[in-house]
Design a protein that fits this description.
With about 190 residues, the protein is α/β, with parallel strands linked by helices. Helices cover about 25% and strands about 25% of the residues. Helix 3 links the parallel strand 1 and strand 2. It starts with 15 loop residues before the first helix and ends with a strand.
């Protein structure tokens, strides 16, 4: 099993370097997140994407901040998110949400930690409405001091293949920077 992110190092999730390399608000806007939408953030951690998403969807929308680690959700709650952000504990194999309820389903730096990635993506697709973005951000398969060890990283072609294994239609692949890429798909 791949190594999970250590919640004791939560400050890395909120570092200025991470903000600089990946603006959450800019990325979410690019993915089409807007007022009134339902956003599911799988592996939400301390809210790096969930809190900016809350500002974009507003009180007419909803943000489900899911994580397997209760300490991460506690740190998110300590930030006093607005009432339309719902922290939810989840597992790898089941997201405790209804079918076809989300306008955007998102996971950043999670897929490489999952033991059964195709089953995980199927579960993300289950909660997504048809033809809405199902998005995965991952570390490029390269050696560098930041991020997970080289051996745990998923090559972008492997991530594309996992989308197809999960029955998700591939839409796009884009490198956000030399270290990180984003794969987007949808279900019919």
């Amino acid at each position: 099993m791949a190594r999970r992110f250590d919640p004791d190092h939560f400050e890395r999730l909120e570092s200025p370097e991470r903000q600089k390399s990946m603006s959450p608000e800019r990325l979410l806007r690019k993915l089409g997140l807007k007022l009134g939408m339902v956003f599911v953030d799988v592996g939400a951690g301390t809210g790096f994407f969930s809190l900016p998403a809350a500002a974009l969807v507003g009180p007419l929308g909803k943000v489900y901040a899911l994580d397997v680690e209760p300490l991460m959700l506690e740190r998110l709650c300590a930030k006093g998110p607005p009432p339309w952000v719902e922290p939810v504990r989840c597992g790898e194999d089941r997201l405790p949400l209804g079918d076809c309820m989300a306008d955007l389903v998102f996971a950043c730096f999670v897929l490489h930690e999952i033991e059964a990635p195709a089953a995980f993506l199927k579960e993300m697709a289950r909660v997504a409405k048809p033809r809405v973005p199902i998005v995965v951000v991952e570390w490029a398969k390269r050696r560098q001091p930041e991020g997970p060890p080289f051996e745990e990283r998923l090559h972008h072609h492997r991530t594309e293949a996992i989308f197809l294994e999960a029955g998700i239609c591939f839409r796009s692949l884009e490198f956000l920077n030399p270290s990180q890429y984003i794969v987007t798909g949808f279900k019919k």
